[in-house]
Amino acid sequence: MAQPNGTNGHTNGTKPSDHIPATHLLASFAANAQTTHLTAALRTKVKEVLLDFIGVTVGALTHADSTVPILTAITALQGPTVTATSPGVCTVLAQGEPRFLKQYAGLLNAALGHSLDFDDTYAPGTLHAGVTAISAALA
Fold first, then answer.
1. Is the pLDDT of residue 57 over 70?
2. Where do transmembrane segments lie in this chain (predicted)?
3. pTM higher than 0.90 for the full model?
């Protein structure tokens, strides 16, 4: 197995013959990540992206035409038996008590975070990375 290298001590350079699933590597990285591994500039950027996501998501709740249809559809998909006291329920931003299963909370947070299309943009990749990553992390 490859030895830790780089300044953050993480293992890089695994080979296909190591047979370590990509999901395991990603989960291990995420589980062991610490804010001390981030530079001051990166911590500032994370805060900026998170605040942007929250602002755009909360704004979408009252200003996006798609909010009511999305909430209605996800509530119907989830079914009437899920309540705030059901095991495993999660919060959708600005929706009060947790009342959505994690897959639907993640979907709703992502859909609302992108509804107004003001979410962060990574220009070289032409994508909105924050909305999906933050939504998954919150769920």
1. yes
2. none
3. no
